[in-house]
Amino acid sequence: MTNHGVCSSLIKKLDKAIENFYGLPLEEKMKFAPQLGNSQGYGQAIVGGEVNSDHVERFYMNTYPINTIQSHLLPKLPPSLRESLEAYLEELEKLAISLPGCLAKTLKIDREVMLKMYEKGMQSVRMNYYPPYPKPKLVTGLGTHSDGSAITIVHQVDGVDGLQVKQDGVWIPVEFLPNAFVVNIGDILEIWSNGVYKSPEHKVTVNEHTRRISIGVFFMPKQEAEIGPANSLINSTNPALFTSVTMDKYLKEFFSRKLAIKTYLDHMKINKF
After folding, report:
1. pLDDT (tens digit per residue) in 149-162
2. Which of 114, 147, 240, 246 would bridge 186 by S-S if both were Cys, CB 3.0 to 4.6 A apart?
């Protein structure tokens, strides 16, 4: 996505703040470690040579609704990171609410139905730091998966490549474009569009010499929404391909599974064979 309207000076401020955070001593970063029974917070998977292991530091947290924000995370971040991140999220929300409306238009369905699902919807963020590794083919930055969100907006800091998307069985590098965001369609939109839109399998590779930083913001419907194929897309010649579940159940079951290739999406398919 180009011409997105997010201020370049804000993006640069955020980039610097994220880099400064990952430059902190480990004991400072561990103050943001997940609390018991929760996956939100700072963590790392820095390998010692294991083949195909993830090689990444990451910080994941909910940022909306307010009642899902962990008190020891966003409110306690270094001021420069917290302020720039909050301003960035506010700008991205404006983009995110426009995208489902565009998709509804291409599918020729009621735009208002789509917007009602996503207005004031759920939002989370993941800031990733991929250190360089001398034998990059032995590790992954992040293994093959699809996003469980409806839409994910990814910003790649400093133009270091590493994101790859699988197309027709072949891994295609996502070329970096200055001042552009990568927009991923997630599993929720594949379900909602009844398979018209596909959530892409993707992974992250590690650079031999240079660190890579990215920030992904995940947008999902509001908590009370029902996740399933849009009623207007279902008829006698186009039956539903997926079951329907509440957003609450979707989240619980999705996050109970390890990050993997569309495992929960496959679980929701009506005809699995």
Report:
1. 999 999 998 888 89
2. 147
Q: Percent helix, strand and coil across the chain, each rounded to 5?
A: 35, 25, 40
Token pair belonging to 256: 């109970």
The model's pLDDT over 62-77, given as tens digits with 9 standing for 90+, comes to 999 999 999 999 999 9
Whole-angstrom Cα distance, residue 74 to residue 61? 8
| Both tokens assigned to 96 | 């995110």
Tokens found for residue 112: 């208002």
CB 86 within 8 A of CB 77: no
Helix (H, G, I), strand (E, B) or coil at 223: coil
Distance, CA of 202 to CA of 166 (rounded, Å): 6
CA distance 39 to 255: 9
With the C-alpha atoms ordered 12, 18, 22, 25, is the resulting torsion angle positive or negative?
A: positive
254 phi and psi, to 5 degrees? -65, -50
Residues 264 and 254: their CA atoms lie apart, in Å, by 6
Q: What are phi and psi of 30, to 5 degrees?
A: -70, -10
In whole angstroms, give the CA distance from residue 206 to residue 212: 8
What b/e readout covers 58-96, taking b as 16+ CB neighbours within 10 angstroms?
bbbbbbbeeeebbebbbeebeeebeebbeebbeebbebb
